[in-house]
């Protein structure tokens, strides 16, 4: 760490914190949780955007039909249970009694059906569900039914993938348009009038929420809100965020910058923990609809030069506990991870050979706009390494640094880079989301309907369909291996390594549920 930075941090630059909001005098300090998220909440719609910030926000204000427990198994959340017909073509779901939206209206089956339909258009398992469903109907206020063309064993798994239940009037918004109404069904209410993108967001406990009578387990179980108010303070500068934590101006920093961890570990009243046991897969996304990355030969040439160690060292500061390599298409350590074709990443790197492959690919010197988020230090480091690698390969790279919110907006453009489009950017995807073909959004080959970058791959899509029909996990793993081999040929994205994130909080906080994301229920302040 830079010596000057250590000195500044140690002196607790509280003067820089003048913009932090404090609770109203009538509120007890132990009833307010002040939190610094990983980045800006630029858009609060978890369907329109796939950002983890929006997902974390959504988990506070909207509940889910099913949620994963600490063993990653789907458990009933809003539903009392479900019934399946003998031919497995009809699923009937019954909601728990007493569920209310934040405006006091009861949660109805019609709300669930509308929420499922909107969510399903943007998520891989949801898209599969839409393809297999004959109809989804509300039977009455508490029961709804899904009739299928063929059995779909992953129904409840699908609903755990960020399928949040909104009022029907909101859920009827087109999935490709942003919502403007944030009435929720979860343990906290979003205080929209206090939301200032780039500055803050605030939430209040929903007194009429009915938690399940079970201990919390990851995203499942009882969601008991112990704080009257949760304040998200957007602090882009990592040193300022760390100083705020040291001085007690904030209670929790979701992802402290890696080079500040030694100072935070030695700070009185601060705990640094690695609650993330699954990690995230870091990746370089590329735009397959525009030159030069519409050329698979060029993509393979770049892949031959990728050294995952360089990316992980930069992103984690070399802390061995915070990364794992090699990392393929699927999350290491989970059932679908495979060694198939991994020699393209693990064989000795030869930059001169890779430069020759670039020249042979037909690359014509096209400008490459590589976007980098200035407010996500680890991801920014990944982008800087990617830029350096491409330049060493002789590519014409334009490194464009913006805040994450701006990057997320720009990545939706399919225009050429000189007309507001883009060519590449680095990001991370949570390990559970890219653990298998069912929910692996970046691995889809469905072109314009797919993830940002929009690769088209009939082979990947066909293998994905086969994976759903596989009779057991052994057969699924064999298909996943084939998918990885195809991915290394067609390169829908570049895997850069597996990252585990640390978090830091005041010792006064107890009951934080271990997870790869911040969970705000069950937490208390001593």
TrEMBL record:
Membrane-spanning intervals of the chain: none
Cell compartments where the protein resides: Periplasm
InterPro entries named among the record's database cross-references: Peptide/Ni-bd (IPR030678), SBP_5 (IPR039424), SBP_5_dom (IPR000914)
Residue ranges constituting the Solute-binding protein family domain according to the UniProt record: 74-421
Classification via CDD domains: PBP2_NikA_DppA_OppA_like_16
Organism of derivation: Roseomonas elaeocarpi
Name of this protein: ABC transporter substrate-binding protein
Family: Belongs to the bacterial solute-binding protein 5 family.
Name of one Pfam family that matches: SBP_bac_5
Domain of life: Bacteria
Keywords: Signal
